[in-house]
Write the structure tokens for this entry.
Amino acid sequence: MTLPRIARTLAHLHPIQALARPIALGQRALGRGPTAALAPRLRSGFAPPSPLFVAFAEAEKERGRARLAAIPEGSLLHAYERAYGCEVGAEPTLPAPSTWDDPIAFHPYPASVRARRLAVAARLGRPGLAAELARACRAIARGLELHLLANHLLENGIGLACGGAVAQGVEAEVWWRLGSALLAWQLPEQFLEDGGHFERSASYHLALTAGLLEAIELGRAAGREVPDLWWATARRALAWATAVRAPDGTYPLFNDASFDSAPELDRVLALGAALGLFAPGGSPGAPPNAGPSLQHLEATGWVILRFGQQAWLAFDAGMDGAPYQPGHVHADALTFELWIRGERAVVDFGVSSYKNDPDREATRATRTHNTVEIGGVDSSEVWSAFRVGRRARAEVRRLEHGASHVAVDAEHDGYRALPGSPRHRRRLALHERELVIQDEILGGERTSACSRLRLDEAALERQSLAIEGVQLALTRSSGVWHPCFRQPRAAVVFSGCGEVRDGWRGGIRIRW
């Protein structure tokens, strides 16, 4: 840790974060779990819910159980997951209250997730939840995560809105109004023009979209006036989810995304359809024809390239997450993932740790992503578990849609602090049977450049892929990737390194 790096990190903070942090630390040091005294009564007489709503709740219960079982006991993340209330589903068995008496259970974020799950269970007819719902909502209301903002504060608002929807009385009205006020503030801030969440992680996007859909359903069932903003935001968020839906029904794993940390994409779309927000026409994410096509999610900074049923590619050429909350940012400027004939072949490293340890450092490092590393340093100055100092500024320079291919050109300046201020320029050209990657380093004094490509080992063999360097000698090594948190799968890594002398060029061709 160095003072200049700390200064570069703090320079991006929102003023509210700086003002709220001392308050949050004080509350955590002095606070005790809220009581359940005089808990508001829960509403009754709800109309029967949609079968899709019931199925979604049950699927979330099973997903929560599986994820909890995969996380090492004794870790902070395990304590958080345990406090989320994964036991609460369509037909929950409420655990002993001591399960949620751990102080971590009343940190605002896990309390927010738990409040939402308790509210859904109450909507589905589970009795005896008033006390625990009151404790969760009271914990949120007294500890809003203004020091973090971003997805944490939005989850606070969703939890309060859900709790306020299913309860009644003066305190429940406070929860509803406070949650609604937070959503009125944060939804326009956090969901971009193209519908994507501003932290640019598909997992967090899906989790928040699902929470918003549940708040809409609960509010409507309770006879509340659901704001137009909620409906409009959910509609755009579902459209974004459709755009990033890969042929196998999953999504890109950029920026701490994983398959087990959020609801399944198709289940979220189905929940949206049940609310009349999404009309599935054919297969979501399917190409419109057998030829090449592309879609630029401009606000997010992602480009989707397709070639019929042969190939689907997601390219990250956008900014590093939310300006003031880059906790899930990786040093992965101009990385990509590639699906061949419906199977994920070129893979993101995924997430192996949230602790401040070597695994977390590797998770976020440039060297573990499908891009170019210059001078042995990261393209963005990631440090600690969730910090970023200097950020790469990436932009799409050109999109090309030909009769037999689609291509994208982009560049970033993440290495501008190195001697000669080198810039990385990349072109991806997708054809029916091949992908050509062309990299160029503009400027820069004498240093090194390494291009890397990580492929799922099984897909490499099944798809009979041929990998060759273009003006670049490649070496092959063994590696891993993590489609689910801390659940590695075998990978093969191809690397090509060279010396930068006032510029550098190299590339990789993938044939199938």
The chain has a mean pLDDT of 94. Residues 292-511 form a domain with the Beta-galactosidase; Chain A, domain 5 fold (CATH 2.70.98.70).
